[in-house]
Task: structure prediction
Amino acid sequence: MTMPATFKLSKDQIASFSEKGLLRVNFNLNPAFLDSIVEKITPYYDAEQLQQRAPGIRLQDIWKQVDEARQLATDRRILDALQQLIGRKPLPFQTLNFPVGTAQLTHSDTLHFSSIPKGYMLGVWVALEDIDADNGPLIYYPGSHKLKEYSMQNLGLKSGRENYPEYEKAIQRLIEVNNLKPEYGIIKKGEALIWHANLLHGGAPHKDRNRSRYSQVTHYYFEGCKYYTPMNSRFGFKLYRNPVWLPESADYELTDSLPAYSLFQRILLRLGILKDD
Result:
C-alpha cells in the first residue's frame, strides 16, 4: 500500500529543478531536532581538526552511531519530494556531516555515484545552521546537469582516485568553455538544497574561520536501478555497488553488505588494477 504524500512540491518547483538541476526547499524541520544532530555528532569529529576548522573534515555514515542523522536522511517529507522529482522510490545510501565548509573543487557526483539507467541519484544538503557567503556555502552551476555525463575516460584521463586532481582541472576547463556562471547556496537553518547527480558543484571558500558551518548531506539512489562507481571502472567493466540502504525505522540490525563484483573484477581488484573506494 502506497503511503500518502506528507509533502507536496508545486509544479513550479518541479519545473525549476528540471531547468536548474537544483531546488531550494523548506521542509519545516524542527530547529531543536537539528540542534540535537549537531550536539550528538560533534564528539565524533577529530578534536584538533575541529578546533582548527580544518577544510575537508567530515564524518561519513555517522547515522550508524547517531540515530538523529538517520532520522533526517529518511524524513518522510524529503523522501516524498524526491519521489515527486524522479518518479521512483528514493533509497538513501550515504550520509556526510560537516562542521565547516568543504572548499571542495567543482565536480559532478556522477563520477562517484552513477546508475543504470542514468540520472537516478540525487543529493540533499540540509543546513543545520544559517549558511551565508562567509561560512562556506555550496557553489553550483545552474543548468550544468544537462551537460554530458563525464567520466574519467571521456575526459581523456585514466581511471582511479590518484587521477582525480586531473579530473578537477578538466572540469574547470569545461566550465570555462561552456561559459557557466556560478550561484551560491545561501540558505537558512533547516532549509535544504536538492541537486541532480550531474550538477557541477563544490564548496565556496570558508572566509570567516571563527564560524562553523554544520550541515548534513545525504545521497539517494532510486529503486529499480543498477549502481556503480565510474571513477574506478576500467576497461569497459563497471565497478558495481551494492549499497547499504538506510533503514526507515530505528528497529534494525546492520549486516555486512559485500560489493557485487564479477569474478573478473575481483581479479582486477586483487591485482590492484581496479580500486574499491
Residues 164-177 form the longest helix (14 residues).
